[in-house]
Amino acid sequence: MQFALKKMQQEDAHQIASWHYPPPYDFYDVEQDQEDLAELLDPQSWQVSYYSVFNEANELVGFFTFKQEGQTIEVGLGLRPDLTGKGLGRAFLLAGLTFGQEHFSVSVWSLSVATFNRRAIHLYEQIGFTPLDTFMQHTNGGEYEFLRMVRPV
Question: Which overall architecture, per CATH, does domain 4-110 show?
Answer without folding.
Answer: 3-Layer(aba) Sandwich (3.40)
